[in-house]
Each structure stands twice: as C-alpha cells, then as structure tokens.
Design brief:
InterPro entries: DUF4464 (IPR027887). There is one protein chain. By secondary structure, this protein is of the alpha+beta class. It has one domain (15-150). 17% of the residues lie in helices and 32% in strands. The protein has helices spanning 15-28, 54-60, 63-67, and strands at 32-41, 47-53, 81-84, 89-92, 98-101, 109-112, 118-120, 131-135, 143-150. It is globular, with a radius of gyration of 15 Å. The model has no long low-confidence stretch (mean pLDDT 91).
C-alpha cells in the first residue's frame, strides 16, 4: 500500500493532468508502467521532446507541484529519450524500469526490465504486448501521448 497520492484533492483542469492522476496509483505500485511522450518549448523557447518513465519520475519529482499547476512537467536530458529540435541534441538513458534500444531498424524501442516486453513508440505500428498508446488532447503542451504497459502479464 502506498501513501497519499500527489493528485489527491487537486482540481485537475487539463486532460493531461487528469490522465496522469488516473495512472498515478498503478504506476506507484508497479502494476502499470507508463511512458509519457511530451513535445513542447523549454524556457529558452526551443522545441524539446522526451519519452519519460512516469513511474520513475514519480519517485524523483514532487508531483504535487505538477498536479497543483505550480510547475510544468518538461523533458529533461536525463529522461529515457530526449531531443532538442533546435539544437539537434539527442540523449537517451536507461531507467530502473526501462532499457532504451535506439539503434534499431524498427526505430526507438523501450524494453521493460520487469517482464522483458518491448514497447514500440512508432505511432504507425502496434505498441507491443500488454501496451496501449493514448494520445492526449491538452492545452498545456504541443503534443502528448501516454504508453501504458501492464507489467508482468503474458500476451
């Protein structure tokens, strides 16, 4: 059992924050492992994007600040995959939940470390076993997609 959720009691006015709140408990307890794709502008007005391991970020960030609207969840160079569209800067990093497979004919892939399943983030193909791709309409970001992976289930 986990403690109080960061989203509890917050008035969530945007679809993105509502989507994160709906997934918070399952990501905290390990039943779900979500990857958030965000594309937006950073503080230098440069277009940046990233694939973010939501469950991991929940352990490193104060999500109460995001859910209350005091801070915005933005891409970081330390996320699973980061791209600065203006400077053509790319980085990728494993997390406790995912291995990044970047040099692949299929494009960018993420391998869940708990069950070994592959998540394919290419919007034109099947995302993988036990994984769903959900585009989220939001007024807070340019582009938002959430990949939900149910951990540990056989296909």
């Amino acid at each position: 059992m986990i403690g109080l959720l960061a989203s509890t009691g917050k008035e969530l006015k945007d679809n993105f924050l509502q989507a994160l709140a709906e997934r918070e408990e399952a990501n905290r307890d390990g039943k779900l492992s979500s990857i958030i794709y965000i594309r937006d502008y950073n503080s230098h007005h440069q277009e940046v994007s990233a694939y973010i391991d939501y469950a991991y970020r929940l352990t490193t960030d104060d999500f109460e600040a995001y859910f209350s609207g005091k801070k915005r969840l933005l891409p970081r160079k330390t996320d699973l995959s980061f791209y600065n569209w203006n400077k053509n800067v790319v980085s990728s990093n494993p997390s406790p939940n995912y291995e990044v497979i970047a040099e692949n004919a299929c494009g960018l892939l993420f391998k869940n470390k708990m069950d070994g399943k592959i998540i394919n983030v290419n919007p034109k193909v099947y995302p993988g076993d036990n994984t769903t791709r959900t585009p989220v309409k939001t007024n807070l970001y340019l582009h938002m997609v959430i990949y939900d992976h149910i951990v540990g289930r056989e296909p």
